[in-house]
Design a protein that fits this description.
mainly alpha, elongated, 5 helices, about 140 residues, about 0% strand
Length: about 140
């Protein structure tokens, strides 16, 4: 199930790890890996929302500033200049999610308590798990 939590996030986004986390709550190993995948997906969704808000703010600000300063001669150039960066961010984030999911899917299949670089510490703190699945003292 821990392997599935990592693998299914590529298809199901945050829903698949959430379901596995809720179903297999009694297993510390599965809940740790599912929570990591869930937190990674939530960070990804939050990052995309922030980036989309910035993108739409850029679009509307350039459209309104070009309308106020001169008559419309064509689409604003700032949108075309920033769009490749926006596209690269989305593609890069998706490739990072896929590679991370595959690597940690393999590690979970081997039975390792491998943790994501930042999100893994959050999952350990939330579940109160030490290295190797040991209990943390209260």
């Amino acid at each position: 199930m821990a392997t599935l939590a990592h693998a299914l996030q590529m298809i199901g986004g945050w829903i698949a790890p959430l379901i596995i986390f809720l179903i297999r709550r009694q297993s510390r190993f599965v809940s740790f890996h599912a929570l990591q995948a869930l937190l990674l997906q939530l960070v990804f969704v939050a990052g995309m929302l922030i980036f989309m808000v910035g993108w739409f703010a850029l679009i509307f600000s350039t459209v309104f500033s070009s309308m106020a300063s001169k008559p419309a001669t064509g689409p604003p150039l700032a949108i075309f200049a920033v769009f490749p960066l926006f596209w690269l961010f989305i593609v890069g984030a998706n490739i990072t999610i896929i590679v991370t999911a595959i690597v940690y899917c393999i590690k979970a299949g081997r039975g390792e308590w491998a943790e994501y670089p930042v999100v893994g510490r959050w999952a350990r703190k939330i579940l109160k798990i030490g290295p190797g699945g040991t209990n943390l003292q209260p």
